[in-house]
Write the structure tokens for this entry.
Amino acid sequence: MNDYLRTAIVAPMTTGSHPAPFRIPIRHARKDGLILLDQIRAVDKARLIKKSGVIATDTLKYVLATLGEIFDE
């Protein structure tokens, strides 16, 4: 999908929010935070300036499983 569209789907990360079943704990850039799956959105790729890293495979699997639950896969 990303090869054909000018937008990318993103889930923001925060260090100042409250835990919830649909918010995934993560450690990134030496900071503990949450991936906010309740705030996913599409953004224009031109707004994505630089890549700040990648998440661990286990975290990605957890994110995908949680999204499956949210959207009742």
